[in-house]
Amino acid sequence: MKWMNTIIKYRLLIGLAFLAMAIFVNYETSFWPSFILYFIGIILLVGHFLFGPMRLIQTAMEEGDIEAAKKVVNSIKFPGLLIKPVRSVYYTIKGNLDMVDQNFESAEANMKKSLALGGGQLTKQAEGPNKLQLGMLSMQKGNMKEAESYIRQAIRAGLPDNENNAAAYLQLSSIMMNKREFRAAKEYFRKAKSFKPTTPQIVDQIKQIEKYINRMPG
């Protein structure tokens, strides 16, 4: 709803405006006539600092407007004030945006901050994707043991869709190839294909691996 996004976008200013009106009414009359203005102003300010503009970030990312998402994320000056589940999502989104910018060191740090918060339904939903991202980052650094551990944890925690599951099993298949555990590599490759991913990058990976995986022993 656009009106809700508008309120969230200007919630801090609106809250300050209500407080200013409350103080004026209180000064001119008494406390009770200004009570509702104080109440609305405080609710808006508390909402701004405890919940942040997450709805705006979600809308921007759903629309594919990465620059707008970055702008909203960067507008959060005090992430430590966000309630724990929202803070976890904030660090997850920040990590994903870092991945887009190929700032892998910052992405890893933000993903780990998200996981360290623990607890809460929103955090649980982010756990699997976060660990998958950390696994992929570990692969880029050549740390296959850490990568395998993170990816297995991601699968156990649960991944949100076929694309993420296919990506996870493809990475495990690659790791098994490097370890020369060809039977396991083939099994993970079959699992990746079973999710029938449609993301061009993943489909291309499957085509590339399929060229030679069937010629492997095991």
Give an account of the 3D structure:
With 218 residues, the protein is mostly helical. It contains 12 helices and no strands. Helix 4 runs antiparallel to helix 5, helix 6 (84-100) runs parallel beside helix 8 and helix 9 packs antiparallel against helix 10. The longest helix has 21 residues, at 31-51. It is elongated.
CATH fold label of the largest domain: Serine Threonine Protein Phosphatase 5, Tetratricopeptide repeat
Using the coordinates above, name the CATH class of the largest domain. Mainly Alpha
- The percentage of residues in β strands lies in under 5%
Portion of residues within helices: over 70%
Integer tally of domains: 3
Helix-and-strand structural type: mainly alpha
Uncertain runs are: none
Give the beta-strand count: 0
Helix and strand element order: HHHHHHHHHHHH
> Mean pLDDT, nearest integer?
91
Briefly summarize what is shown.
The chain is an all-alpha fold and 218 residues long. Helix content is 80%, strand content 0%. The chain contains 12 helices and no strands.
Write the layout of secondary structure elements.
Elements: H1 2-9, H2 11-28, H3 31-51, H4 54-62, H5 66-74, H6 84-100, H7 104-117, H8 121-140, H9 144-157, H10 162-178, H11 182-194, H12 200-213
Helix pairs in contact: 2-3, 4-5, 5-6, 6-7, 6-8, 7-8, 8-9, 9-10, 10-11
Task: Give keywords.
12 helices; mainly alpha; single chain; 218 residues; 3 domains; 80% helix; Serine Threonine Protein Phosphatase 5, Tetratricopeptide repeat
